[in-house]
Amino acid sequence: MNEKIRLIVRREYFSRVRERSFRISTAIQMLIVLGFAFAPTIIQAVRGEPEPAMVRVVDASGTDIAGRLAPYLGSVTDDGASGNDAVILAPASITADEARAEVRAEEVDGALLVSRDPAGELRFDYIGTGGMDTLAQRVYAAVAAVSLQDRLQRAGLSERELGTAVTPPAFSVGTADAEDTEEGAAAIGARLGVANLMALLMYIAVLVYGIWVAQGVVEEKSSRIMEIMVNAATPRQLMAGKVIGIGLAAMTQLVPTLVLGGLAFSAQGWVAERLLGDRASPTGIDFSALSIEAVSAFLVFFLLGFLLYAALYAGIGSLVSRQEEVNQATMPLTMTVMIGYFGAVFTLNGPDSLGARILSIVPLTAPVVMVSRVIVGHPAPWEVALSVTLLIVTVVLALALAARLYRSGVLMYGQKPSLRSLFRPGMAKVAR
Fold it and tell me: What pTM, to 2 d.p., does this model score?
């Protein structure tokens, strides 16, 4: 590395990491990661075991509807419940008005009025407090199954035939790829979770640290430090030093946070078992879904994506003179990063679709989208190679353009340079 670039990198790096705000923001990031990982479990432990919902059953049909509904709602009748989300069914010989009064007084969570119409069909009227809420939907699914059973029974089916008729069919989910075994199919959900997490990480890192670069350029420009620096080094050396220095500072903040986050999310299940016991549900992100290829793709595209956007943010930052103008000036780049992130999210549903393939090759969106495709899809090797090649070429061009903008931003301090002025022969000469 050139000695001048090394000095600039050293200055940029230590001027960042020695700031108190850097240490505070790093600590806040780590606390946020720990909060995302453990807050739901801690809140559930503090709240204790939820009480099961109670539904009053007023049965005028002449059949044991409560007993027939119980298996579908994970419940028993009136004196207990099996499972955290079970529903207690409480039969009672009361009127419909009395049942409504109980719901209104919040003595029960809902009331189910059962009767038969003149044709002998079961009729269900549910009275709740929240319209078609979750409890009402569960009750509806249960009464639909019971109604089917009742119709088949009245049609003359035996108990054995009835049980066979309502038993769900065997159903498994796989993929069209011959490489995917049953274990691979079961890991699809884990891969989707990891891909979504990595896309979000890429989006936040590029956005936050790219703006760091732009703000650093504007800060130097507003204090006129840049005028001294351009006399000691070329614009390209300044650009390289600034991008590398801030990039290393970003990694100093990001890597410990990532390590802590990986450990925290991996430990979710263990913590939940200790705090919740039998109430713990399977949680945590299965990082075993990551292959060596996926990790390698993430590192390569993260590095190239950061270099690309850091150069573009630096170039745009050199065109403004005040910190207040940074957000407005960088809005087009911010929108581009957002397009890449949302493209990656939609890619999870169709990683090998035409849209996903295009977005994974376009340099401005490839850093986010291609990583998602590598994790959940099957991009051809030539697609990955083409995406990396185009990214490298674009990074080189972006650094050259940013160096030109960087130099012109100093020479035209206080002015807004036009595209024509940036490419004048004289300006091109000083930008080298």
Answer: 0.66
